[in-house]
UniProtKB/TrEMBL annotation:
InterPro entries named among the record's database cross-references: MeTrfase_TRM5/TYW2, SAM-dependent_MTases_sf, TRM5-TYW2-like_MTfase, Trm5a/b_N
Name of the protein in its database record: Class I SAM-dependent methyltransferase
Domain SAM-dependent methyltransferase TRM5/TYW2-type: 77-320
Keyword entries, A-Z: Cytoplasm, Methyltransferase, S-adenosyl-L-methionine, Transferase, tRNA processing
A Pfam family recorded for this sequence: Trm5_N
GO biological process: tRNA methylation
GO MF, one annotated term: methyltransferase activity
Organism: Halocatena marina
Claim: Cell membrane is one of the keywords in the record: no
Amino acid sequence: MVEVPCVRVRPSEGESTRRALAGGEFLHPSYEITVVDGWLYIPVVDAPDDYTVVVRDAPERNRQTMPSDILGYEPSYERLGELAILDEDDPERAREIADALCSSDLPIESTVNRASKVKGDLRVREWDVLAGDTNTIHREYGNEFALDVAQVYFSPRLATERHRVVEQVQEEEQFIDMFAGVGPFVVPAAARGARTVGVDLNPAAIEFLRENARRNGVEERVTAIHDDVREIAYDDWADRLVMNLPHSANEFLETAVRLAGDECVLHYYDIQHEDDPFGPGERAIRDAASEYDVSVETQHTVRSYAPHEVNVCLDVRLMR
């Protein structure tokens, strides 16, 4: 037995919870699900939001060869489909980990190491390719997303947050993602029956968005636009707007107000100091949306971003 984080739920909720965790790639592949004293304990590789997580002993599955078996230590990496992402400063250590990942029983076919920060208007970074290539298929809450990390920005860590937002989407809603990327908000919103528009400056992201709409069978409800969102002609159209550009979303609030219909829910992402994480965003929204009644429905902390800084989301309802 080994102590691991486990999501604790009642057995009646077990299968739906297991499917949700598997969709977000949170399930731990090395440990068994157990039932103790009327509770189901599901081992996870990370502690997802919105679940009760406890640390407890879990039995190991029939042993696979894991990277740690080869290396003698537990490497740090991030999974994106069958692509493993490293953040190692030492090239020799990065190569050692890449070889172990690809030699293990994990379904990993490619490994890359971060070679730069996210940069530029297209939000991409440089990579050292250690095995395979930079293309992958990421699965998230029942949807598949093709992408190339060398051409587009994508964070699997935001899967739970994206799911939280998409669960609020209603059928026939008019939905705009102002910075859509490869479609992780747009595609599942369309799958819930919304009429969706995804906009991005990155032409590669828009091509992947179109591919992902086809891949998930929602292309008839997705309009993908390669443009600056400030230039699109969807005035007074949106019932829901996603603004996931936390370093500079405030610069696009005038556009958001122009796109919003008479009633619109705005999901506004921000990065602020922990002493006042929500105040600056709320004040900016109220200043920009003076023609609306503004009500903040949710103040949600997404994750820690840096020392004393947090990534937050404000769910705000605008009523003209």
